[in-house]
Amino acid sequence: MFTSHLKYGTLCRAADIKSHCYLRIMLLIRSFSFQVILAFCWVYIRKYQSRQESEVVSTITAICALAVALITSALLPVDIFLVSYMKYSNGTYKEWAANNETRGQIEDTVLYGYYTLFLIILFCVFLWIPFVYFYYEEKDDDNVNKCSQVKNSLKYTIGFVVVCSALLLIGAFVPLEAPPNQNATQWEKAQYFFKELGSSRGFVALSFSISSLTLVGMLAVITYTAYGMSVLPLNLIKGTRSIAYERLETTEDIDEVEQQIEKLRSKCEDGRPLSSRDRRKLQELESKLQVLRRRDRHLEIAEKNCCTKVGSVLRPLKILLGIFFILVALLFVVSLFISNLDKALHSTGINSGFIILGTNLTNPVNELLLALQPVFPLDYLLITVITMYFVFTSMAGIRNIGIWFFWIRLYKIRPRRTRPQALLFLCMILLLIVLHTSFMIYSLAPQYVMYGSQKYLVQVSNMPSTRDVQGNSTGFSSRTCDAAAPEDQCTMTRSYLFLHKFWFFSTTYYFGNWAFIGVFFIGFVVSCCKGKKSVIEGEVEADDSDMSDDEYLH
């Protein structure tokens, strides 16, 4: 007996050492990821910002906002890891996590992490980014001094602060639960309300504000992420047009336009003035000729560029990557469709936010994550890759579509040509997309995002472990945690609690997933019908100035 206890204690110590090694590995990965995120944000913003219009405050703001977006997206894998780390693979709590108080401290730490990042997001979206945006807009007026710039920027920013305050107030006062005694007097109901307001309404107010922003993020995900998931792999597969053919085509267009210009100018050789129609046409042809010559100049530089030659050599790799990305996109869309179909068939209904108490239909992404649990840290790496995939496809969608206000195009995202205002818009959109990304990943793998790799013990009969007083065999079996598990046996991720605090937001997210699937297939069809892109796609536009063109070439 002593020997068996000794072996058990040795195994437990070995398991604890292994668990602590896992925790240290995760902490090292997160520390390294933080440095990589900051470096990536700096390189990304510097790549796209206009050298001619670059400005220190807007550059720092864009880099910090993009870093906050990426760090927030990286918090979900940490949240899942920590709730999974509390338990052994057999469903029992580890010694240090057996106490409810210890588990509560860990959960509070994660919750404070979400609080901090979400408050920073609110600060960026409603105060910092709007102020810098309007400050830069006021800077375009040469007659305005610094004090007037700050005053006017604050005046416009107050509107955003008012909206944020309204959301926080609505979140604080919105009734989540009715008073327990419906026959109580108005004074008793007021007492109950103020008691609830003082207990956890700060969490509710923040959750309501973040959920409201997540609705806007849902629209951005439907618009940009869905299209980015379809256009990114297809562009890799199709590649770009031949530079030699493009130069030949451009040269022919230049000759044709020059002939048309000479033909129009010949009309006024005898001193007769051109008609207004001919003058307008001549002006259009001269502008077109200027764009064509700039295009030919860019093509000539691209033809001599080493990156273009390397890209031609890596063409087979790009095709393989495109095929891989399109398979991943289809896997995500199929998983999202199955998850939504499961909610439609087996959820508790629209009035509860389509909450489902278990996975009734096999979800490929959820099953893949659960299958990778035994091999640390493959499941956490996969959930991190999924999160980053959504962020980068969103970036690809924004680059291809640009920033629009309904049918009006506001800004274009182009390398070394993007205005500071456009970069600020880009970062704000990414902040909103990241907020909705957590719900998208929950839709892809609801069971895993809710509980991670946790298991719990269930008492079963007919097992050869012990016998009860009636002589029946009883024992314990471990099961994967789901919504039907006992509350004290499984710990929910803090992300899930933030996402499902209000049923009406969850209902809207559910219908948003259907819209996402529809837009993805529409974008896929449109991308398939489009031809190959030019190797200088987006570099030459009719509304570009000669100064910005010279800046790009040098």
From TrEMBL:
UniProt key word Transmembrane helix: yes
Q: Does the keyword Transmembrane helix apply?
A: yes
Keywords, A to Z, come to:
Cobalamin, Cobalt, Coiled coil, Lysosome, Membrane, Transmembrane, Transmembrane helix, Transport
Q: Name one GO cellular component term.
A: lysosomal membrane
Mode of membrane association: Multi-pass membrane protein
What subcellular locations does the record give?
A: Lysosome membrane
Any stretches that span the bilayer, and where are they? 25-45, 57-78, 112-136, 156-176, 203-227, 319-338, 380-410, 422-445, 502-526
One GO molecular-function entry: cobalamin binding
One GO BP annotation here?
Answer: protein localization to lysosome
Which Pfam families would you find in this protein's record? Answer: LMBR1
Could you list the residue ranges forming a coiled coil in this record?
A: 247-302
- Family as reported in the entry's similarity comment: Belongs to the LIMR family. LMBRD1 subfamily.
Q: What is this protein called?
A: Lysosomal cobalamin transport escort protein LMBD1
Recorded source organism is Scleropages formosus
Kindly list the organism's lineage.
Eukaryota, Metazoa, Chordata, Craniata, Vertebrata
